[in-house]
Design goal:
mainly beta; 15-stranded antiparallel β-sheet
Length: 315
């Protein structure tokens, strides 16, 4: 993404630049390369990841801490599936973002929901994914998605089941719009995944997973997981997610200035069901939302955001 810096703009003009910078550069949950998904067009010259070949993106380490080990019997929770395991699941993502600059009318920069059927194949290295027919209720995006089917993606995992890398290889004929939407959907899924604790636990166990999330502002994300039920290898886990900025100042890309973070509240909850013998969640939904406020110290303009993100899995 290219962001121009205008250090001597009058307040009205600079406010417009501020709105544009935030609209395309900040999506509080659209982490990593998702910057710009909201407004990226077919002919604007930007290139999403994986435009010509598979791209592997490292994911920040997830650190687990056991708060309570739960009831007996206790055991280590570890993925346990042989190479060649096949699983068919559907990923659904929705991302709503509304912004208001000073007293101007509110503007909607939401990305349309996506439904992504996929087939997972396990290997000795991780999980390979082949996408089916990806759909969206938005007519324009739905048309752009017609050639995204057959794309490939994948996850590399740690011994604790944490995703350590995301691999993306969109179909060669897929449009930039479809590729960008796919990227954001998978980033949402990655940062709503769960890592297992490093010591034996039983029903009722509680552990936290701490991880950095970079969606423009660098965030400290803490997911609190509670093992509410275990039936053999099938686990039901309640999740509570909170995000806090690691700094009260956001340095905008390409030396475009800084913004003061005046208010930042992002939290949410959900429940997922995982099977230790399968690579991906078999069911569940997690919703995270909140509001933020940013102030431009040079123009005194204030921008407010309201955000809501949902990630769901079904077999």
């Amino acid at each position: 993404m290219t962001v121009l810096s205008y250090p001597h703009l009058p307040r009205i003009a600079r406010s417009g630049v501020l709105l544009m910078v935030l609209a395309v550069g900040l999506s509080a949950f659209g982490a990593g390369c998702a910057d710009g998904v909201e407004s990226r067009g077919e002919t604007d010259g930007t290139e999403p990841l994986g435009l010509r070949k598979e791209v592997t993106v490292p994911i920040p380490a997830a650190v687990t801490t056991v708060v309570s080990a739960g009831a007996e019997p206790r055991s280590l929770l570890r993925p346990d599936y042989p190479a060649g395991t096949v699983q068919r699941v559907t990923l659904y993502t929705a991302h709503h973002i509304e912004q208001q600059l000073d007293e101007q009318p509110k503007r909607d920069f939401s990305t349309p929901a996506l439904t992504i059927p996929m087939t997972a194949h396990t290997t000795t290295e991780g999980i390979d994914l082949t996408l089916g027919s990806v759909t969206s209720p938005d007519p324009t995006l739905a048309k752009a998605l017609t050639k995204i089917g057959g794309s490939h993606a994948g996850f590399d995992l740690s011994d604790l089941g944490a995703i350590t890398a995301l691999r993306l290889e969109p179909a060669p004929d897929a449009s930039n719009t479809a590729r960008a939407a796919l990227e954001q959907a998978f980033y949402q899924a990655v940062y709503r995944s769960i890592a297992f604790p490093d010591q034996p636990v039983g029903e009722g166990a509680v552990w936290t997973v701490r991880q950095e999330v970079n969606g423009g502002v660098l965030l400290d994300q803490v997911t609190t997981a509670t093992l509410t039920e275990r039936d053999g290898d099938r686990l039901t886990i309640e999740l509570h997610v909170t995000q806090k900025p690691k700094s009260l100042v956001w340095n905008l890309p390409n030396n475009a200035g800084t913004l003061d973070i005046r208010d930042y509240v992002m939290q949410g909850a959900g429940t997922i069901t995982v099977d230790l013998g399968l690579p991906l969640p078999v069911a569940g939904s997690i919703t995270v939302g909140g509001h933020q406020s940013y102030r431009d110290p040079r123009s005194a303009s204030t921008l407010r955001q309201t955000i809501d993100t949902q990630v769901s899995w079904t077999e």
